[in-house]
Amino acid sequence: MPAPPPSPLPPNRKSLTLLLSSLPFLITFTHIFLSPYTKVEESFTLHAVHDVLAYGFWDHITFPGAVPRSFLPPILLGLITYPFSALFVALGVIKTKIGVQLLIRLILASFFSLSFNHLAASLQIVYGTPSRVWFTLLSLGTFHTSYYAGRTLPNFTALPGVLWSISQVIRSESSPTAKEGQTQLRNAIIILTALATIVRLELALFVLPLALSLVVLQRATIGQVIQWGLIGGFGSLAITSPIDYTLWLPALSHPDFPFNSPSQLLWPELSSIIYNALEGHSEEWGIMPFHYYFTNSIPKLLVGNFALVGLAGGLWASARVGGQKLMRQVGCWDKSRAGRGVGRLLTVWGLSISSVLVGLSALGHKEWRFILPILPILHIISALSASNLWSLPPPSSYLRPLARLAVLGLLAVNLLATGVMTFLSVNNYPGGEVWQALEAAGVAEGEKIWFPSYPLQTGATLFTFTHDHAAGQGLAFWPALPAAEEPRWVYDKSEGVNLSNSEWMDGVDFVVTGDWAGLTEDGWEMVAEVGGLEGVGKAPGQYKVEARWGRKLAILKKD
Q: What stretches pass through the bilayer (predicted)?
């Protein structure tokens, strides 16, 4: 009998486990420090956490955002952040509010990393150590997962719970007792349902087909999945509805608030889905073709992993239509745990993947982060595919060197793409850089700085308003935010301002804007600027591409 193929793993498994467990923290933290600022999509959660820590100026009343979200996730994130922030402020480690913003993102990335490691450990238990190795390398080697893991988008505040739930379902396959397996499935359905209810309702397209698959596969009964869903849905609503109603009610009279009935505040996520999807307001942000997720988002998210997913899915599909001989000749999918694992995964999760892709493709407005829940499943499939290719047994062992070279090549493609996209992305937050430019602009005590929408969309947040003295007492005796810088400045974020209104402009001393031409003609002096990425395009010469840089924001002072 031929000897098993050599494993790429070092003999010291404890060191390997420590290394693999450290990578999610190391990579996501690196992304946060390289790119510390945020975009407008992250502002609701980030500013709500600011409110929890500061208890002063309740920004959501003045600027409620496009649609309301539940306050429970940012409240929990704020409460978890508070003791660390208060300690680091007291010790002098955090000296400005920007340090608190970094801390919030690091804590969110830590939850991602912990849940990621839980899922990776489940793969190791069920499919073997090589599957964990490749899952870690192939997942973290792509850009979007690791770069956004510490960003306070609702999709990514839900991601740790999604990863943990997927892990529970996978781990239930090898539970020592049926009771333990049922408990793991119950926990997964409850958490996913709660996340769908509170954070992102499109998760219903993920969890409902999963529940149906578990029933069809006789891993749970109809009564069980209904009971678990009711606990997750109504249980979470019972907690969040009083909180959201109380905190959103003062914003109901705001002219930009999209809702007009107090009842819409009881379940913000449902009201937002009705407003965006059913009433069509999301299409104001752009309409994409039906095939967008299939031809744009998935290839962009998976990069090199796309080939591995395609190979695994194609071989699995060929077996369903009588292609077992091909399976034996090409992949030995019928002989390895990893190969059989692809079939088991698709049997459980295939309906969820299809439901998310088809259901969200029916909507006009599409964004890659909407299909985020299926991304871990696709990464797992790519890892199982890579694991199988790395250890091809006879009669395909003669293909093993070529297969290994292909897998390493795809991993290299991931890393190269991640490096390029990271380089471009970290230079795309001019609004976040404004606070440093203002320090050198000579702003005096009590002077007013007006921020129109563009700098607020590209990184300027309440945490970058380092000279703002409006924060309240905080959660407790020990402040979670450091003392504001001196001198005191007044930050103005008024929207819909008519620049020709001389009476209003007379009260403004500085303007931070991306549209400076008209103001400089009216006598405003440019005292500082912030550069950034203008775009990427073809450079002179064949096959050459260049990144174009330029002025993104100007700080203007009244002459």
A: 16-34, 71-94, 106-127, 189-216, 228-248, 298-319, 345-364, 370-390, 402-424
Single-letter amino acid, residue 234? F
- CB 260 within 8 Å of CB 280: no
Q: What is the pLDDT of residues 448-460, one digit of tens each?
A: 999 999 999 999 9
CA nearest 244: which of 211, 270, 220, 266? 266
CA distances from 137 to 131, 134, 148, 191 (A): 10, 5, 17, 27
Whole-structure pTM value? 0.92
Backbone angles phi, psi at 306, to 5 degrees: -60, -40
Beta bridge partners of 531: 551
Instruction: Report residue 45 as tokens.
Output: 């959660």
Which tokens belong to 2? 């031929």
Residue carrying the six token digits 């060197």: 401
Query: What tokens appear for 241 in the block?
Result: 């509805």
Residue in the block written with tokens 């049997």: 347
User: Which tokens go with 322?
Assistant: 């009588």
Check residue 523 and report its DSSP letter: T
Beta strands 510-513; 545-558: pairing state: antiparallel
Ramachandran bin of 475, using left for φ above 0, alpha for ψ from -120 to 50, beta for the remaining angles: alpha
d(CA 228, CA 226): 5
What's the CA gap between 102 and 11, in Å, rounded? 37
Query: What gap in Å lies between CA 460 and CA 434, rounded to an integer?
Result: 7
Which residue ranges of the chain lie beneath pLDDT 50?
1-9, 56-57, 331
